[in-house]
Amino acid sequence: MDDFAGTQSPVRRLTDPEEAIAELERAVPGLTALRLPGPKTVNWRVLEAELGAVLPADYKLLCELYPPFVLSDFLGFGGPMPGLEDIWVRGTREDLETIAEWCEEAGLAVPLHPYPTPGGLLPWAGSTQGDFFLWTTSPAGPQEWTVTVASRSSAWWHYTGGAVQFLADLVSGALEPWALPQVRPEVATW
């Protein structure tokens, strides 16, 4: 059984982290009200050393500018908190164990594998229904990582943009939410 739904691509991939954040803020107007008064100081160097990977700049900027939030009572975005980076890494490793099981059970024609396998999947967000939003890592570097959706309903699919642009395009309707509910531009702290 092949549960791969396909691949969607943005009209233009946003590579500038600030441009991606601005696009998300346009798609989710209430998000700016949640912006922190100053950026969080996450120790990315320590976190990335422990994880074994440098994370994409758009993700890091979103984590620094906003508290954890949930979109449309469905998609939860958290990220590491200052001083608790090791807890975030431990949680990510636990999620990788689940993702390994899902990859094995998915029955995809082209098998996917969890990170740290080269090109492996690394989680960056989740849903209230148990879906995973993952990066497909790339040896070309974190700015080239794309998004893979592992839906609890068994459908897997790819998006060839970055994580923040994915959120903006999902909420704005620029991409089809295959196997996911419609994600409205409603936001609340998590």
Index terms:
190 residues; alpha+beta; 18% strand; globular
Largest sheet: 8 strands, mixed
H-E order? EHHHEEHEEEEHE
Question: What's the rounded overall pLDDT mean?
Answer: 94
CA-to-CA gap between the ends? 36 Å
CA radius of gyration? 15 Å
Q: Which range best describes the helical content: under 10%, 10-25%, 25-40%, 40-55%, 55-70% or over 70%?
A: 25-40%
Tell me the fraction of residues in β-strands, as a range.
15-25%
Overall strand count: 8
Task: Give an overview of the whole structure.
By secondary structure, the chain is an alpha+beta fold. The chain is built from five helices and eight strands; from the N terminus they run E-H-H-H-E-E-H-E-E-E-E-H-E. The protein has helices spanning 17-27, 44-51, 57-65, 85-106, 163-172, and strands at 4-8, 69-71, 75-77, 121-127, 132-136, 146-150, 156-159, 187-189. An eight-stranded mixed beta sheet has the order 1-7-6-5-4-3-2-8, sandwiched between helices. Helix 1 (17-27) packs across helix 3, helix 1 (17-27) runs parallel beside helix 5 (163-172) and helix 2 runs parallel beside helix 4. The chain is globular, with a radius of gyration of 15 Å. The N and C termini lie far apart (36 Å).
Write a brief caption for the model.
The protein is of the alpha+beta class and 190 residues long.
